[in-house]
Amino acid sequence: MKNWTRVAIAALMTSVAAPAMAEECIAPANPGGGWDFTCRQIGRIMTDLGIAPNLVQVTNLAGAGGGVAYTQVVSSRNDDPEVFVAASSATTTRLAQNAFAGATADQVRWVGTIGGDPGVIVVAKDSEYQNLADLVEAVKADPSKVAFAGGSAVGGFDHLKVLMMLDKAGFSEARQVKYIGLDGGADAVTQTVGGFAQAMTGDLSEITGFIKSGDVRPIAVLSEERVAGFDDVPTAKEQGVDIVAMNWRGIYVPKGISDERYDEWVDALQKVGASDEWQQVMAENGLAPYDVFGADFEAFVADNIAQIQDVSKEIGLLK
Amino acid sequence: MDILSNLAMGFEIAASPYTLLLAVIGCFVGTIIGALPGLGPSNGVALLIPISFSMGLDAISALVLLTSVYYGAMYGGRISSILLNIPGDEPAMMTTLDGYPMAKQGRAAEALVVSGVASFVGAFAATIGLMIFAPYLARVAFKFGPAEYFALYMLAFCTLGGIGSNNQAKSALAAAIGLAIAMIGLDKTTGMPRFTFGELHLMDGVDFLVAIVGLFAVAEVFFFIETHGKDSAIGVKLGKILVPWKMLRQTSGAMARGTGIGFVSGVLPGAGASLGSFLAYMAEKSASRDKASFGTGNPAGVAAPEAGNNAAAGGALVPMLTLGVPGSGTTAVLLALLLTLNITPGPLLFTERPEVVWSLIAALLIANIVLLLMNVPMIKIFVHILSVPAWILLPGVTMVAFVGIYSLTGSSFDMLMMVGFGVLGYVMRKLSIPTVPVILGILLGNAMEDNLRRAMVLSNGDWTFLFSSPIAIGLWIAAILGFVAPIFLRGLLKKPALPDNDPTTIED
Fold first, then answer.
1. DSSP character for A286?
2. How far apart are CA B122 and CA B116, in angstroms?
3. Could you say which residues form the signal peptide (chain A) (predicted)?
4. Residues 205-264 of A with CB under 8 A from B
5. What is the phi/psi pair of residue A59, to 5°?
6. What is the CATH number of the domain that holds A277?
7. What sign has the CA pseudo-torsion B454, B460, B463, B466?
8. What residues of A are in contact with residue B388 (Cβ under 8 Å)?
9. C or N terminus of chain A, fewer CB within 10 Å?
10. Cα B170 vs. chain centroid, distance in angstroms?
11. What is residue B376's three-state secondary structure?
12. pTM of the complete model
């Protein structure tokens, strides 16, 4: 009995921590989050397409919002050609705000992104705000009357979406904007439906159910174009506020690998992004196409970080 | 009628021989995971997610397996609470208070049976509650804003006074230590790290599992070494298992009340199973005519929190399924599982994917019955695992604690922190300061602070906002009563407050 238990537990442990012989994807969070999803889907498709001969091993390395994985890749796996790490706008946001214990974005190589979760601004179904202009006017008139709820902490991507949107719309007093950070988009929607917050920002996929059930009304989606399946939701751009905020899903690899290997990764990711399997995954999970690869992506990340640093300085998160 | 036909559909999907086998395996593994300190329901389920993928299970089978593990762990947590004075997981913490004294008096078997039945009552009733009321209960979450949540957590802390020790100041001290530890990590309201000293591993705060395993399991090991096994919890013998019908009848009220309280706290996202078992225990204690016997082996003190935590586990599925808001760490993992299976919980889940919901409910009912059978007639199997000689068990507990904590984040930092908590737990036990309030502080402190500060942001700093809704006012009144009542009751009963060094206040 005893032995059996031990064996079972040992089996549980090793199946998670088994050493990887082939490609390994590090998800810097626990199973089930967005990064875990990125790893598992990209890994599965790589295997299906024959890009990775073996099963891609997914390792969950949670901590510090991706910081633990980031610093570990930089410090101890800098020349490992077989490892790649899931990343998203949360990664660049934290890098920009120096939340990874001094690590910087140029310590790894950014491979690309193959999809994005469009940002969205919603209000409760009986809200007085009919469109983005109404909401912006209300904030301009009295910022203390409009509270935004979001699924990330102050300074996180959901908060930055609000600030960047208002900035583009001509309200730059970032510190006066009321924002409460909750644990995830669904929690933030609950507070908005309950009337505690007047508007909510989040990723579209998190709150699809609430939009379809009619509990909340989307007033703007923060993508380049309208999103398939939500064709009646106007973009912020259409409403005169030039902002795109996509929570992109992509990967980075260690800095120390050869250029050839980096190019192989870019190529592999492009193949995954173009595959039918990935198109299906995106459709099922409310992701919109968002493809940037290689050198373009490195430039995109640098821009993104500069932009976030500007906003973060305004709200006092950075000096 | 709708419910019955839906349920029949659920059983049709979920009750194949293969899924039943998975349920039995899941329940068995779950009970063991729950019973082992350091492996709680949330990391148990998290560990099994990759396995269910590599086994190539379809959505329904994976759900059956993992919900069986989830419920199994909720049942299993009590076993080590009662036999070792080490909670197998955080909601089983309250069960140590009366369960372990019962075991020391040679009533371990009764404690296990009563708590097993209480777990069943709580979980079964909660599943039925989920089945009938889920769509309506989802709306309750919309009524709870920051002010209401803050009042709810205040209620928990206000009733904390009489826990474990009769010295209120020591409980308050322990709670303050817990609240202080809860401040470590990223502050959600400013986005700044606090007390992390530049250490990345502290950015997410201190995981309560690290604290619980350190304060209970590791401290127990230190204590064992010091006393050479005398007076230590490890090595309690178990007699023959008989069903104590009389005791079950006597505790039926406690089970029913525990179930009700647990279910409600489960339904509120952010409260969760630990709050459920805590409030169930405290309510039972204050409702009882025989308060003094709580903490010394009162069966009602075992039945109430076990019914409470299992009912909360079921209740927590309500916001998870209908809103996509996980009410506890474990439902967060289950939510993740659903998302990976392309099932998005939310307001439309019940109408869009009825087959998923109803087969899940059917799976829960099946798991409960399997678990009742495993945990009452077959309890000896699990007890054997824990009743090996101390020289095997002690290293075993230590190993499982280290492996379990390592599996949380894969960092050695957490293991060192766990040892630190072990030392803290040992010192606190020497000073007879209860450790349960520390855990409660860590568990609820963050959420309490976040909600207070959200409330202040929303109201532009107006503190009267905290009392601005009927729900909040009701919770405040309950909190004040919970704080004040024991003082007056003690006067009425003409029992003087016990002096500091009274031997009965020592927990072990």
1. T
2. 10
3. 1-22
4. 205-210, 212-213, 215
5. -115, 130
6. 3.40.190.150
7. negative
8. 2
9. C
10. 23
11. coil
12. 0.82
